[in-house]
Amino acid sequence: SRAEIPPGRTDVSSDASSRTAAGFPFLRSEPMSCRGPPFQQSRPLKGPGWRCAEALSSRAAQGGAPGSNADGTALRLWMVRASAQVSYPAALLWSICVVVDQEQDPSYWNTQARATLQAALKLRPQAHRAKNIILFLGDGMGVSTVSAARILRGQMEGHPGEETVLAMDSFPYLALSKTYSVDKQVADSASTATAYHCGVKANSKTVGLSAASSPYECNTTFGNEVSSVLHRAKAQGKSVGIVTTTRVQHASPAAAYAHSVSRSWYSDADMPSSARREGCTDIAMQLVSNTDIDVILGGGRMYMTPKGTPDPEYPSSNSRQGHRKDKKNLVDVWLKARQGKNAQYVWHKEQFDAVDVKSTDRLMGLFEPKDMRFELFRNRTRDPSIVDMTEKAIRILSKNPKGFFLFVEDKGRIDHGHHDGIAKLALTEVVMFDRAVQRASQLTDESDTLTVVTADHSHVFTFGGNTPRGNPIFGLAPKKADDMMPFTSILYANGPGYMHVNGTRGNITSVDYLDEEYMQQAAVPLDSETHGGEDVAIYAKGPMAHLFHGVKEQNYVAHVLAYAACLEPYTDCPPNTPGSGSCLDYIGYVSRTHSCSTEEEQDPSFWNVKGQEALRVALDLKPNVHRAKNLILFLGDGMGVTTVTAARILKGQMAGKSGEETTLKMDTFPYVALSKTYNVDQQMPDSAGTGTAYMCGVKANYGTLGVSAAVKRSDCKMTKGKEVESVLHRARKAGKSVGIVSTARVQHASPAAGYAHVADRNWYSDADLPADAVNGGCRDIAYQLIHNTDINVILGGGRAYMLPKETNDPEYSSRTGERLDKRNLITEWLSMKPNSRYVWNKAEFDAVKDWETDYLMGLFEPKDTRYELDRNNTMDPSLTEMVEKAIKILKKNPEGFYLFVEDKGRIDHGHHDSKAKYALTEAVEFDRAIERATELTSELDTLFVATADHSHVFSFGGHSPRGNPVLGLSSRIAEDLKPFTTALYGNGPGYKVINGSREEVNSTVAGSNDYMQQSAVPLDSETHGSEDVVIFAKGPMAHLFHSVQEQSYIAHVMAYAACIEPYTDCLLPLRDNSQAAPSLSKLFVILLGILPALPSLLLT
């Protein structure tokens, strides 16, 4: 923690040159400029690449080399949105220009996706035994943290950042992990460590014990111990090690070797006397006595030596002296027990570097009295990095011919940085953590080493704020907040960064917000920022890595690790020989339906059986390599990982359960991937640029639809020749029926990307077209809806854009259509379509007979449909009802269908309004629609994909017990002695200061439909988030969704799965239906065969 940084930090330089020398050249990228355009627009701009070219050539004309600063000032890139002017270092600007130029061409994205698709098609599970296991644990490394760290790493290397690939991103298999503990909705590092180390979920504060033990009650320890995979690996003759950037007695590594009712009993001095009398042992003592660990590297010296023993590095510091009361020197105990086993102890990097791995079989290195320092403050002459320690550990452990188990944790870095509300500390640690992952990959062989990277929990960390492409990750958002003060794109929902001066938010330009210890602003004041409650990612490669799939309980991690290496209880396991297949009959399989019962969950067998069942399902899972007849793409607009997790809990609580253990329908989809959502010109994307990516397979600019990134927003004349076709359009050309269902207006960006090509997503009707667009021949989205693609089913809102201004709305007499051209597009559409129906209310909708209808348009509101919470059940159908009607009409086509389903006006708009109840209720309804779709179709011939276009700066965390209402209050109060909700936003309209302090909230207010959760920064509309979103998939070729992908990859997989352009040569076989039901021709042959025998049969 920061307390461990020596006063004055005389050994750590704070100037930019020293950071560059240390390998962090862009940590202090110049802040954005809020001044006018640096380059005069003497002629119409032609796109980001043109602007880059002019910017650089103008500098070159002044005598500067491309990308240099002739006059010493930073080059500026005038971004698409006039307000988004950003000041960049010259080298970074040059890189942005090169990248943007490439990305304007659709062939860039098509070629990239084809290569990725080919790699996915060649991917084969390694179904043999793992000799070695490496478990990397990024403590507090949620999905938003990983995404931000990816950008940081790219910017540190001189690139825009968003397109960067982390080492863990390249791992081929990915899953999500549910992190709650038995007694907490938002878990701690102790209970989660017990889950992923030992395969059993536990109570908070406890390590290596089942949930039958109670925190701090020593007498509940005995008989409730559970063994870790590390311990089981050692029992089978493997070498084992732990590497951590915190104290080696910290909860995460401790769960691998200790059994303690308190994660804080580091030494005997930390234990109450009653616990010592009852026979409990401190964690440090268990470190040297419970399991023979070969390599131990990290911090924690003071817990190993007698009280008063001077620390070798800080001999004059009383606070760093030995801590033990029993007068034992556990370092000496460890060394003595390993006499004759080539054991060494080191505490300094010089000693560490001198260790000869060839002659060393046991190594303990303790480099700080407590936690090790943050990477930004590490003394490179005294302390090794996590990369150094990982390499040394692997070189020592890999000498064992039986293999090894290594646990590597970056804890004191990522997690502590977030707790301190200092994002720069946290994200820099993730970058170093990823470098350790990369180095481990170089030192091992994927054919015999299972490598898993995951997190124990997340944090209430958000980043968004309408930032342009390449925006410095620690920089400012391009626009000021509603209080007319700037804000950083990174914010926290709660934490020590909450600071108000005279009743107003602090002006961050008065401080150095790029400083290493700058605390990002927070919505709620806490002395320590809290963990988040959402799912975290699992990245895996190597033998049996394919068993990590879908959404799993966190304890599943330990079961896969044990099974892959044939450790207890899976000694009947995969064979040793690579490529020889796996044994599926390893478990006495018991099918059980588990109810949520804390008493039941206290028994380790509950979690072991649950883990075994999930493992059996994974082993039985076989890819469906047939052609998809039908394609259904479900798009939860704004449905980030945090929203999915919170909706899961809400769904369970609406059913009368605690919620955390609930399974959404999309959770059951067997294949999971992550999608990188940035637009070509924006770090924080919108629904138009993302819609073009997942619908058309090509990334685009912010605000543009169905066109390549060569088109600048709102520039009509750039559109022609830059159109890109959607999978929906290609499916229709291939003879399939197609449909769109949306809870927004059907002209909204997400569905419009399926049929329209416009330079501005807001050109809903001709009334929205500017004069130059009209003169340029551009058409509005509503017009293109009925003229571009022959769409069979159109359901949602948006009547106003289809009707003349002179026409009254049928539901609201005071409202009229919006079209200026006097055209009624509804009647035009009906006149063009046979067997067609138009409806505008639920009664008419319900009366539609799907067997008589080939075309159906239903527009139930003038603009967006209502939120589910406000929907009039007698006037408007639900999303689920619209999906059912659409499928029943579309599935009549023997060639199959393509259906796009979006919950937009619900999830996304609810978040923009900072009304989490609306957003989460919509997500629950969205999941119901998915469930109904799966009931009406078969995954044998239907590819289902559920994903999001982007996330939001929404978080939930705080201190919430198991079953706490997901929209309720934290169990603790904030530093201002006021309660706060666990659900909060980074920015948005929920920011309120009354009489100079934060607004009061109680459970009644927090539970109301219209309650706006509080935020750190005041905006009239909460912004999108910039992190990755999840792709859930099942059905034919669903296994191609794996790892971390560009969002444009989605369209390519869907096109390939259905063998439509440009993959008509896919050669995928159609599913053989002969076993399901005999064809008419076969029945005819059978009848011909028995006809001659009928007379004799009748006589008998």
UniProtKB/TrEMBL annotation:
Bias-annotated ranges (Polar residues): 11-20
Superkingdom assignment: Eukaryota
Binding residues for Zn(2+): D139, D415, H419, D456, H457, H531
InterPro entries: Alkaline_phosphatase, Alkaline_phosphatase_AS, Alkaline_phosphatase_core_sf
Membrane topology: Lipid-anchor; GPI-anchor
Cofactor(s) named in the record: Zn(2+); Mg(2+)
Enzyme class of the recorded protein, top EC level: hydrolase
Keyword field: Cell membrane, Glycoprotein, GPI-anchor, Hydrolase, Lipoprotein, Magnesium, Membrane, Metal-binding, Zinc
GO cellular component: a single term: plasma membrane
Region listing for Disordered, in residue ranges: 1-20, 27-50, 306-326
Membrane-spanning ranges: none
Record localization: Cell membrane
Major localization class: membrane
Active-site residue numbers: S189 (phosphoserine intermediate)
Keyword check for Nuclease: no
Cofactor binding description: Binds 2 Zn(2+) ions. Binds 1 Mg(2+) ion.
Pfam families named in the record: Alk_phosphatase
GO molecular function annotations of the record: alkaline phosphatase activity; metal ion binding
Keyword S-adenosyl-L-methionine part of the UniProt annotation: no
Chain positions recorded as Mg(2+) binding sites: D139, H250, S252, E409
Known EC number: 3.1.3.1
Reaction equations catalysed: a phosphate monoester + H2O = an alcohol + phosphate
Subunit and interaction comment: Homodimer.
Family: Belongs to the alkaline phosphatase family.
UniProt name for this protein: Alkaline phosphatase
